[in-house]
Write a structure and sequence with these properties.
Strand content of chain B: 15-25%
Largest sheet of chain B: 8 strands, mixed
CATH topology of chain A: MetI-like fold
CATH superfamily of chain A: MetI-like
Number of strands of chain B: 12
CATH topology of chain B: Rossmann fold
Helix content of chain A: over 70%
Order of helices and strands of chain B: EEEHEEHEHHHEHEHEEHHHEE
Number of strands of chain A: 0
Strand order of the largest sheet of chain B: 6-7-8-3-9-10-12-11
Number of domains of chain A: 1
Structural class of chain A: mainly alpha
CATH class of chain A: Mainly Alpha
Oligomer: heterodimer
Radius of gyration of chain A: 24 Å
CATH architecture of chain A: Orthogonal Bundle
Mean pLDDT of chain A: 81
CATH class of chain B: Alpha Beta
Structural class of chain B: alpha/beta
Distance between the termini of chain A: 42 Å
Low-confidence stretches of chain B: none
Distance between the termini of chain B: 28 Å
Strand content of chain A: under 5%
Number of helices of chain B: 10
């Protein structure tokens, strides 16, 4: 008998899992060879880089008014031109990315997370639980989403965080419905019955067996809704219920420049391009992730 | 009704019923599909008990109800001396390691997003607190037992053929060291050549691990190869039950006789005066009055329409549910 040291145990642990490590390497290779996922990751990578290094990249203070240089067309000192208060649009777009990423992160987490969880519970258990959760989503869906978001934003008071909460409360129903439909489909599959006959309980089946099968449509839906999220935030900002004017949120910048669109096109256009690029990046990434995650599409 | 068989019984099922409600409107009284209707049988320890019948006869429902994967409407299920129907969900879950099921469809019975080692090892994770290395060892051992290799552990189900998938499903069932296995048409989705291999494997496993099988099938040739005891089901009821010899050599029920006659004969020159079952199996929502088989029975008399026959013993181990057994 040899004495098994801690180190030896660790080595064995690694050795037993070599095929899994191989699998991860294969995932990496697939990610590299999927063009769309690659483009998406590059766009999101640039976005994250900009978010982190915004103060270093931006040449001007995004809040500084300079009436002498107002409404300048794009030129070498102001890449994206200036707005009606003489603020540098390039700097504002750079700083705006921080707000954007915060909104996207929180809304995805709150409405995506809560919606998926409630949807899976509803679809898995069915019956009275399903009725209660689904009638609640019906109530939310009965209102036009922007009006409902306005009501919540007005009730909570105008601030960025409250806007995020309002959008999340309005948005969770979509994910709940999607997750419920998937859960209902998956729970009837023979492999769920098989795992139940092995002796798994409801919680285990729900989270380890049903939930993973529901994630890919949710992920795709989430990336597709990023654009809507940004635009709803902009809409609320426009109505004075969301992001307050000096904050360089992309959506509110687009709506600010609306009245100057004929003469000074650059005020709305550059933040608009930024929104489009980020939304596109997330869509590509979402599609790519779905393909990589599905073992049936691998190899 | 008393059933006396000498050897020890692992499983006793008494008056088991499973009705599925179908409510077509809120105003009419509820209608039921009587998938399993008053079924009583016993499975001797370390034997293979086969249940045969046409599609729609309630075999699969019976298999699932016996394991309480579907809640029975009424009746008792005894495993040795314990009544499964009295268990709460927690007791039932820990009891499940003693009885496992292998289902009909190997293509959908394995989680498509999980590695084979996780599919097979899940039960160990649930029931025993084992280290992940110990689980891997155990999974490897079990996979080798069903004719797979160690490297198969880190693959996904879609990389396997139907026969191999059924082996994985078998490994998942065996890893917990069960005593009782329900096989729900384990070979019906496979090629004929693979069927033979899987059946051979199941038979060998039964012998080496001293298992008891409840074998559900529609194929009498498979019954002939596998079974010790046979029950013939029709419309949710057992029509005839006994040892394989009783059923195959001393067939007493006209329905069993019809099933026997519908086995294709490979010799084209043999043209027996065959009786072929006529028509479709009737609906189990409104089963025929009296004997359920009278609508298709060539020997049906007036009494068959009025009175339901009882499952009676005609010899030591042989039971039949017919007013006029032993036709011919």
């Amino acid at each position: 008998m040899t004495i098994i040291t801690k180190e030896g145990k660790f080595k064995e642990f690694i050795k037993r899992r070599e095929p899994i490590i191989e699998d991860w390497k294969h995932s990496l290779y697939l990610w590299k060879s999927t063009k769309l996922a690659m483009i998406g990751s590059v766009i999101i990578g640039i976005l994250l880089f900009v978010v982190i290094f915004a103060p270093l990249i931006a040449p001007y203070d995004p809040f500084l008014n300079n009436m002498a240089e107002r409404l300048q067309a794009p030129n070498w000192s102001h890449f994206f031109g200036t707005d009606q208060f003489g603020r540098d649009i390039f700097s504002r777009v750079i700083y705006g990315s921080r707000i954007e990423i915060w909104i996207i992160f929180l809304v995805s987490l709150i409405s995506g997370g809560a919606g998926t969880l409630l949807g899976v519970i509803s679809g898995y258990f069915g019956g009275i639980v399903d009725e209660i959760i689904m009638r609640t989503t019906d109530m939310f869906l009965a209102f036009p989403s922007l009006v409902l978001a306005m009501a919540f934003a007005a009730a909570l008071g105008p601030s960025l965080t409250n806007t995020i909460i309002a959008i999340s409360i309005v948005g969770w129903t979509v994910f709940a419905r999607l997750a419920r439909a998937e859960a209902m489909k998956v729970k009837k599959q023979p492999y769920i019955e098989a795992i139940r006959s092995v002796g798994a309980g409801n919680i285990r089946i729900m989270f380890f067996h049903v939930l993973p099968m529901c994630l890919s449509p949710i992920l795709v839906q989430l990336t597709l809704r990023m654009g809507t999220i940004i635009l709803t935030a902009a809409g609320l900002g426009f109505l004075g219920l969301g992001v307050r004017p000096p904050l360089p949120e992309w959506g509110s910048m687009v709506s600010d420049g609306r009245s100057y669109l004929v003469g000074q096109w650059w005020i709305s256009t550059f933040p608009g391009i930024a929104i489009a690029l980020v939304v596109l990046g997330f869509n590509f990434l979402g599609d790519g992730i779905r393909d990589i995650m599905d073992p049936r599409l691998r190899r | 009704m008393e059933i006396e068989v000498k050897s020890e019984m692992l499983m006793k099922v008494e008056n088991l019923k499973k009705y599925f409600p179908i409510s077509k409107s809120y105003f009419s009284h509820s209608v039921h599909v009587k998938a399993v209707d008053d079924v009583t049988f016993m499975i001797p320890t370390k034997s293979i008990f086969a249940v045969v019948g046409e599609s729609g006869s309630g075999k699969t429902t019976l298999a699932r109800t016996v394991l309480r994967l579907i809640e029975p409407t009424s009746g008792k299920i005894f495993y040795e001396d314990e009544d499964l129907t009295k268990f709460n969900s927690k007791q039932l879950r820990s009891f499940r390691k003693k009885m496992q099921i292998i289902s009909q469809d190997p293509y959908n019975s394995l989680h498509p997003r999980k590695l084979v080692k996780d599919i097979v090892g899940e039960g160990l994770k649930i029931h025993f607190h084992m280290s992940s290395n110990a689980i891997l060892d155990k999974v490897k051992e079990t996979l080798e037992r069903v004719g797979l290799r160690e490297e198969h552990m880190f693959r996904y189900p879609h990389e396997f053929s139907g026969g191999q998938r059924q082996r994985i499903a078998t490994a998942r069932a065996l890893v917990l060291k069960p005593e009782f296995l329900v096989l729900d048409e384990p070979t019906s989705a496979l090629d004929v050549s693979v069927q033979a291999i899987i059946l051979k494997m199941l038979k060998e496993l039964k012998k080496s691990l001293e298992l008891t099988y409840l074998f559900i099938t529609h194929d009498l040739a498979v019954v002939d190869y596998m079974a010790d005891y046979v029950a013939v089901m029709y419309l949710g009821q057992i029509m005839e039950m006994g040892t394989k010899e009783d059923i195959f050599n001393k067939t007493a029920h006209p329905y069993t006789l019809l099933l026997m006659n519908s086995i294709p004969d490979p010799d084209p020159h043999v043209r027996r005066g065959k009786m072929i079952p006529q028509g479709e199996i009737p609906s189990s929502v409104n089963p025929p009055s009296g004997c359920r088989f009278h609508t298709r029975c060539p020997y049906a008399k007036e009494i068959c329409k009025r009175e339901e026959p009882k499952l009676v013993k005609i010899s030591g181990t042989h039971f039949v549910k017919c007013h006029f057994p032993n036709p011919t």
